[in-house]
Batch of 4 targets.
Target 1
Amino acid sequence: MPHIHQIQAELRASKIDGWLFCDHHHRDPIANRVLGLGENGMATRRWFYFIPSRGEPRKLVHRIEPGTLDSLAGRKQMYTGWEELRRGLGKLLSGSRTVAMQYSPENNIPYIGLVDAGTVELVRKLKKKVVTSADLVQKFEATWTPEQLVSHLEAGKLIDQIRQSAFEHAAAGVHKSQPITEFELQQWILEQFRANRLTTAEPPIAAVQPNSGNPHYEPSSNRSRPIRAGDLLLLDIWAKFDHPGSVYYDITWTGYLGERVPAAYAKIFLIVREARDRAIGYVAESAARGRVMHGWEIDHIAREVIRKAGYAKHFVHRTGHSIGQEVHGNGTNIDGLETRDNRKIIPHTCFSIEPGIYLPEFGIRSEVNVYVGEREARVTGAIQQEILPLLA
């Protein structure tokens, strides 16, 4: 958990009077992570924790669960009934006018919009202006420590090796005339994760032919295609080390089960590669110049390349997402399509750049991770330059 004085300094810089956290049945994982509460304790009754821009934090808990916030600094109030809760909340927020909450206007950033509408109404009824905590969350949830960057880079080395071995494993099945399925390849990758102390909340994607045109295809034991000669194989692999605080590495590569990649596949890959590289170049140049950049702007740069090539309607995915302890983190997303993410890219954060073209017959995506430092930005792993011919 960040020190209270760090949060208060950011509140003052943002001209916000305080940050109100609240939870019920662990509905807000951001609150639990930022405050360092974890998700193991009971939360069957509502609790509130208010960090003012100046002064001591305050907490409001139910008498049935009086110790819920005992690990946090601040004065404690308790309530039993709903009327007492409302009075207590008024005292909790006394002296403040502008209050940040896990709220997103019009739910533009749904990853932040975790507080329910009724609680927002209740706070507004107390004559408080509710503002989004999106930038605060990014500052204290999405920035990496030097140790986390190291864990990302080390995990990336292993995942890059596993990715190459997975392509070779699929090719070996074709060579032996014993093709494995998408699901079998996915399970093989998971075995490599376990052997290397890597973990993932969701399994990787192995997809061939029309399945590769589905950005979130999920192979399963009863719905899976064999990987045969002449197939385009897309691998989307993400994982992190299995110890606390680790952050994800997330990549997508494509290979062809043949000796020479067909022109139709190569053409689409080159368009996707240009979109990826234009976006990377913009981020690197902006970081070096100290220029402010927003998630939607980077998305627009990549999307324009694909639009000008005539495939706009087939780029149905945002250009990238924040990466952290969850593969889809709570920092700025590279998104001007699904949402208009107008948050600034800030130092010590990481995100994917992964443009794609998804056709009915096949899809191609190229995904890299970009880490932004104080005045520099870099891709943290290998960068695919052409579709890999796997039977060459």
Note: The radius of gyration is 23 Å.
Target 2
Amino acid sequence: MSETQHTPVVPLEAGAGPDNPPCPACGEPLFGWVDARCGLGGPVRRCESCGLGVIGEPGSGEEALRALDGLGAASGAPIANRAGFSAWLGRAGWSGLERGTRYLFTVEAVRRLVARRDQVVVSARWAPTAAIEAMWQTVLNSLTFGHNVALGAVGRRAADPAEGRWQRSLDALISVAVALPALVVAVPLELIAAASRRGGALSLRFKLL
């Protein structure tokens, strides 16, 4: 008679250390997600518990809250969802990885953060225009040398152009030539993501306890 083998469950805290600092939102260790690249302030870590992403040094919960407020989340402005399908699909090519960005939010991370000031998230609604736009740019990023080239050209994202002149020229050509086919791909992908509650952009609403 064979004995059932049980795999021991290792708590997240076991991964804590200098390379895995605490998450500003929930205190669990942050783990590597995307390596450092041009345009970002360092490597990208993510929390396995609340999903918060951090570019560079983790900072504090207060800093993360200020970054959230700076996005206009309290006024219902759409924010990029690090737990969205476009973030999983794009990874380093995800359009949400922008120059100057430090924190990448999820609904759960926002819940943890706003609880510090006695608020709760009462709704998290899919923001279709921003989400499809993010998926579209993520698809384009898989084809270009630079990052967020198309939306950067119209001031909708902070672009990171390619280094070489010929690469930048080719990126511009690709962004124009593939814009419509990329949209045809992006729309159904984002609709599926939204139906699975993994939309790429969300509008949040808070209230005081």
Note: Confidence is low (pLDDT under 50) at residues 6-10.
Target 3
Amino acid sequence: MKTIGILGGMSAASTQLYYKRLCDQTRGRLGGLHSPELLIRSLDFARIETLQATGDWQTASALLNHEALALKKGGAELLILATNTMHELVAELTSGLTIPFLHIADATAGAIHAAGYKRPGLMATAYTMEQGFYTGRLRDTGLKPVLPNPGDRAETHRIIYDELCKDITTDHSRKTYVDIASRLADQGVGCLILGCTVVGMLLSQSNSPLPVFDTTLIHCDQALDQALA
């Protein structure tokens, strides 16, 4: 089993989901007392959020690259970044990195193609929905992502930062997310990408009007595939 390096803390809520999913899946696949070989670097998200809000991507890039190289030096044989939004900095983050890096959008796109969908809706942070680094990568694979309307994008983003990243879930926000997903369904999309690693705290296959592709779960499962290959 290869050691998976997880660069996380963005937010801590989602990194906890990564750890649980990887543990559950390893035990499910190997049985007994098996658990994954992991190295986790969990950053202070308040610092990262400030860099996002002020547009200081250069400082964020240097920080993430330093941490990625440290994980490799510490023994990681495969690296995953436990956040969709910060994949904006993948080129800089992986500079000098000599171990495989599993991109969350590539993993998700592969799962969507395998299921036969072409036109997914995307619910994520405003950065991920609007800045092009993520939707462009999906389009490069042949997908045609569809975004919520501007008001729904703003509310999706607000709930992520004001609530989910703080481990807060409410019935009101859950209904809001279901309603946003329903409006995407009305636009004719075939499935829904939970494009922030915490959106699955409110939406899942049990309450979504569309087939769900949870990026957190997909990312973990494909990372484990590689670790066990």
Note: The first strand starts at residue 4 and ends at 8.
Target 4
Amino acid sequence: MAGKLAKLLAELKEKEALECVRKALEQNADPAALLAEAREGLAVVGQKYSRAEYFIPDLIFSGEIMKAVVRLLEPRLKQSRQEKKAGKVVIGTVAGDIHDIGKGLVVFMLEVNGYEVTDLGIDVPVEKFVEAAKQTGSKVVGLSGFLTLAFDAMKATVQAIRSAGLPEVKIMVGGGQIDEQVRAFTGAEAYGKDAMEAVRLAKNWIGG
């Protein structure tokens, strides 16, 4: 059954993918291996989204299929104790900005890819990002912002995290008007043009 689940998820065939998981579990397949294969399928969806073959509704639907797969696997994963979170990420919309839709999609995609996400919400003050990074031990912080006034807040947040003695923390920025020039202004390591790019950056930085 190797590869079948990944293919079904990549093709957004929800019913068939879930049936594939059920049958595999009946045959005592390794739940951790099934989870890894499902994530391979999700990665293909991300590639198709990047090539504009899939769109945001497809991306969200693939995440819903992934959640359903995880629900089926969860009892077995707990039994086998092989389930492991990919890593921790802190994310929030910076001070002065209340846009939430794009950030919500990034949080959703990070979570279905196995990351433990601390979502600080909107209009988040600089100190809250620093505190959350320290408390959670997260090695990745995501700063979201849509308005141009968010750029200064992003820069101040990056500087605060750097000044807090957290050199291992990688910072990504994202939002409607973010580009490489804005990324350079803020001092962040990278910017993510969409939710799948945020997942790719997290994987590059902390694995998963």
Note: Residues 5 and 17 are 6 Å apart (CA to CA).
